[in-house]
């Protein structure tokens, strides 16, 4: 057994620790949508008021990402991730003292949003880019699946705890999950292969050169990168498509699927179980997409993913009824497979087009647009629900925008090197 452990490449150890840390962060990511209805019932706040906290959470989740990527380059992955987990734990713990919507905005919105945004997919991109040359797409898919695995593990538990013991107990469990991961990251997370005298998995010893480290101001590096890439068509195509990706996943389904199902008479635990089923197939879809990204052109994969996601959203209003039936389960399976599938090819395109030195930060800004889209959808869907009495228009609009994203990605040129042509 000891010999087997010694034979494991340290890159896989880094990926495993990253996977566990992302699962811990996902415990809180899965919580707010479950707590919307109980908080609404207890305090009498409107769905739109509570949606502000969800919207801010998603917005900060995205806007933090590019700065987190730059901070990881400057101060190290371990410090940033431990700080992020602490912020998640404190935000979830303090949320139990909420007496008005603005407290939720601070705890759920800013503290949890910044903490989860400092990890998530920019963390996955940094781990994959530093530790892997071969199997990079598969690793990104696996780390992307960690968030789904967190939902799979904790969403049904949190839902049952909420029903049996109240929403405050569920929030405390989420806080504990995040804090529990801090010592694991401290003891087992290494910064990069060269720190332990190793090379990335699959690297050619005769030709591999480690990407230069960023030693300047992280904020200046992140903002400077944005100023350069925002002038390029390739970044705008990536950002526009990923904006729609976030709108149609985190904001619309992640934030409002359970409340929408509740409106149709479906029990909250049942709806949470369906969302967990989405998480089950999210894991499979993410792994499969990472594997496919190593073999099939990324923009072709994105075209397929966005097209089928649009179809799924158009059919959702007609199948969301009071009980679980085959078509509802089919939606959960299909949407789950497609949920995080867009991430591996998008990360691959960011690195391929903008280079290994800037790839993670460029993806961080692309991810920021993803979460801005989610934030817009979280707030807009809540307002539509109040104004029209249901979520039908929100689902149809999301489906139409997914078709637009499928068209946009076909304009991306993976061989473009827009920054190389700049004087």
UniProtKB/TrEMBL annotation:
Domain Major facilitator superfamily (MFS) profile intervals: 13-417
UniProt keyword annotation of Transmembrane present: yes
UniProt GO MF annotations: transmembrane transporter activity
PROSITE patterns: MFS (PS50850)
InterPro entries in UniProt: MFS, MFS_dom, MFS_trans_sf, Proton-linked_MCT
Keywords: Membrane, Transmembrane, Transmembrane helix
The keyword Transmembrane is annotated on this UniProt entry: yes
Spans through the membrane: 12-30, 50-72, 79-97, 103-127, 139-158, 170-189, 235-258, 270-291, 303-323, 329-350, 362-385, 391-412
Protein name as it appears in the record: Unannotated protein
Species, as recorded: freshwater metagenome
Highest classification ranks of the organism: unclassified sequences, metagenomes, ecological metagenomes
């Amino acid at each position: 057994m000891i010999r087997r452990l010694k034979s494991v490449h340290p890159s896989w150890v880094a990926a495993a620790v990253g996977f566990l840390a992302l699962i811990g962060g996902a415990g809180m990511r899965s919580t707010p949508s479950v707590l919307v209805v109980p908080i609404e019932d207890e305090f009498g706040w409107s769905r739109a008021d509570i949606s502000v906290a969800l919207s801010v959470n998603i917005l900060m989740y995205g806007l933090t990402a590019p700065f987190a990527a730059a901070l990881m380059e400057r101060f190290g992955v371990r410090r940033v991730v431990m700080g992020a987990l602490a912020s998640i734990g404190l935000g979830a713990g303090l949320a139990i003292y909420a007496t008005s919507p603005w407290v939720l905005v601070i705890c759920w919105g800013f503290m949890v949003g910044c903490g989860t945004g400092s990890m998530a997919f920019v963390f996955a991109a940094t781990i994959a880019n530093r530790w892997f040359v071969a199997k990079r797409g598969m690793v990104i898919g696996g780390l992307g699946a960690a968030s789904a695995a967190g939902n799979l593990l904790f969403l049904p538990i949190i839902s049952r705890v909420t029903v049996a013991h109240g929403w405050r107990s569920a929030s405390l469990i989420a806080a504990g999950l995040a804090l529990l991961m801090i010592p694991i990251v401290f003891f087992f997370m290494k910064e990069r292969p060269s720190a332990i005298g190793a090379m990335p998995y699959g690297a050619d010893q005769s030709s591999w050169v480690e990407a230069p480290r960023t030693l300047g101001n992280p904020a200046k590096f992140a903002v400077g990168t944005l100023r350069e890439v925002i002038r390029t068509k390739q970044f705008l195509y990536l950002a526009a498509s990923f904006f729609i990706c976030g709108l149609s996943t985190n904001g619309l389904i992640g934030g409002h699927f359970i409340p929408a199902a509740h409106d149709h008479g479906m029990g909250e635990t049942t709806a949470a179980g369906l969302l967990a089923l989405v998480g089950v197939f999210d894991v499979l879809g993410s792994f499969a997409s990472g594997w496919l990204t190593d073999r099939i052109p990324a923009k072709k994969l994105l075209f397929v993913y966005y097209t089928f996601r649009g179809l799924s959203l158009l059919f959702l209003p007609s199948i969301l009824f009071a009980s679980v039936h085959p078509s509802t389960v089919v939606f959960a399976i299909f949407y789950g497979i497609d949920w995080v599938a867009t991430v591996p090819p998008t990360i691959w395109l960011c690195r391929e087009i903008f280079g290994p030195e800037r790839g993670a930060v460029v993806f961080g800004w692309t991810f920021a647009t993803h979460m801005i889209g989610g934030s817009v959808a979280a707030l807009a869907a809540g307002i539509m629900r109040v104004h029209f009495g249901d979520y039908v228009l929100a689902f149809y609009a999301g489906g139409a925008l997914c078709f637009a994203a499928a068209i946009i990605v076909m304009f991306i040129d993976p061989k473009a090197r827009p920054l190389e042509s700049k004087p």
